[in-house]
Amino acid sequence: MKEWTGKSLFFKVFACFLAVMVLFSLVWTIALSLFKQTMIRERERESQAALFHASERFDGHLERIESFLFELSENPDLVGFDRQLSTRPADEIDYLPARGVIRSLQSYVYQPQNALLAVIVHFRSASLALSHKGSADARLLFDRLYASPDYSFDDWRSRLSGGRNFELLPAGTFVVDGRTRTALPVVFRQPASNYQMIALLDMEKIDEETVGLAEPGEWIVMARDGTELYRSGSLTAAAPPRMETGQGIARRAGNHYIYKKNAAGLTYVFVVPSSWMTKGAGSLSRLLLLILAGALAIGLAAAYAVSERIRKPVKNLLATVLSLQPAPPPGGSFKEFGVIHEKVNDLLGEKARISEQLRSRDSALKSYGYLNRLKNIPGDALEWRELPARDPGFIVALFTVRFGSPGAAELPEEARGLAVRRLLARLRDHVAGRFPSAHTFQIESDRVVTVFAGGEREAVVSHLRALKEPLDREAHVRSVTIAIGDRFEHPSEFGPAYEQVQKLSLQAPLSEETQIVDRPAAAPVFGLSPKQDRALSAHLQDGNADGACRLLDGHVDRMARGGAGVGTYAELARLLLAKIRTLEPSPSEDADDKRLEAFGEAFARCRTAEQFKEVCREAVRYSAERVRGGREEADPVAGLVMNILETRYSQDLSLGYLADLLNMSSAYLSVYIKEKTGANFSEHLNSIRVRKAQELLVSTDKNINDISAEVGYSNFTSFNRMFKKQTGMTPGEYRKRQIAQIHRIG
């Protein structure tokens, strides 16, 4: 049964498919909407173009009518006849000019392209009117021949007093020759004339032949003041909304209103139903929606099927992992699941084999310290894996090799490796006869370890002491220190056991012969006393090589007589090199670092106290040369700064204060001090303060907090941190060690 939960794989895969389908539907809907909008805009452009051409044709037709009426107004026959009507009695009027006017009207009206129902010349006097059909009484002509419910004889007579030249009147219905026609009156009057000319435009013919706007829709002509002059079409749209600009599109009440205004102020409006704008889009939209629905249904079914096909093999894999039991490969067409299932079965089989091995023996791999030390063992020396896990206890012996001497050339790495491997082979041969379960392997480049599984410690010590004579035969090449630890009961204690023999090896004195250390000795204090430390620092700072050498020679002799171990010699070497490093550097700091590293390597190769003293002398002489060379290039500004720091270290000194005192910028002074002395302002100040604190800690019984404030530290935490950084111990530890050393020397 499927678990329809938010955390199930089936639900998540199915939800991913649904999300993709929803996204697809959204994109589809947006695309459909954009398509519909594009279709509407395209049809709007088509309607605008149609209205533009229709208005151009209608404007041209009006211009021709107006031109004809203007020419007619200047016809000599019409002008003469009008003058007679105005000046002569009715019985003296010559009607012959009227016949010429009628012929002109006939020649223009009977032209089909002019689309005219009639052109009427209506005279104010004599109530006479002329048309292309002849002359007649004006009332008779307007009420009978061109009768209109919209325009009566009285309406036309009232317009004779109008002042405008051309005027378009709203379209009306006229009965002409027994037929009801729609006509748009165009009226023309000359100023101070006795007549008006009326052209009746046949709007049905103009719609059909001149304008030519197709259904559906309405074509509306509006005057400058917004009066509707003409409307054609099948719609019954309301009055068009007002459009401030000359052209544009308005949408209201289900219609699109397309505007075009000409130079004379006429506004043409093409009203198109919105349904026509989207005609075809609706059917296409429904078709596309049906396609989308079908695609979604297919996608939903496919999503369910794929999710189910993924869920089943994953469920089988999960059951296999949870049960930790190999299972047959899952069915289905996904090759990847078969590969994963095969690898899982392989891993489970490997796990079972490893578990069986771990159950059969308590592996020494459980010791983190053991692993940490064994990570650099050469690949052919991994015999520690054969340690009997259930043997009752073990003993560790560490063999430390020291090669050459300071004056001799250093052995190549290949030669040192060969010597260690020869030692390794000799140790295995020596140990195997008496302790067959012991295992000897190289743990570092200069160290070999033998683990004695079982056996008594006294027997191990006695057996290893027998190695001294054969090992001493090669003392000219290397010396060996053998450190033998206590018995430990469990392989997981290899880490502590190894640390113990490391400490024991540091207790061995410097010697070219093989040294065997099997018991921890009382740790004598061989460090320099505070007075000796200050004297050594002073000699080094003054470049007094002889004084420093005498002090170090005497101290090394005391160490040799007291049986100091190699660890004590190494500590003295580190102290000396640290003091030399803090002195003023030579112009080439990189060269100094390399030289000091060389001295460190020389100290490590020392196998006798005399060799150690010789390296000390070389280092001191090198230091003196550096100091003298620096003084030859002494700088007065740097000297002034150092003098201020030495005498006023307890004050609240700052780089800004010294810069103001020397009339320099802080940034420049900082770079200057670093360049001339090799250390920056803060390093010099902290070094002096710590040195003064060391003197006070040993020579007085003042509280450490008081000493911190006396040497210039307002914050004890800062003092404690800086003291430990420079000396390697806290102020309290330093005081205890120095006092203990003073008592021992005394």
What share of the residues lie within helices?
Answer: 55-70%
Largest sheet: 7 strands, antiparallel
Count helical runs. Answer: 26
Count every beta strand, where a strand is a DSSP E run of 2 or more residues: 17
Tell me briefly what this model is:
With 746 residues, the chain is an alpha+beta fold.
Can you put this structure into words, describing what you see?
- By secondary structure, the chain is an alpha+beta fold.
- It has 4 domains: 52-275, 2-Layer Sandwich (Beta-Lactamase); 300-357, no CATH class; 364-517, Alpha-Beta Plaits, CATH 3.30.70; 530-745, Orthogonal Bundle (Arc Repressor Mutant, subunit A).
- Helix content is 56%, strand content 15%.
- It contains 26 helices and 17 strands.
- The strands form 3 sheets. Strands 1, 2, 3, 4, 5, 6 and 7 form a 7-stranded antiparallel β-sheet that branches.
- Strand 5 (172-176) and strand 6 (179-188) form a beta hairpin.
- The chain starts with 8 loop residues before the first helix and ends with a helix.
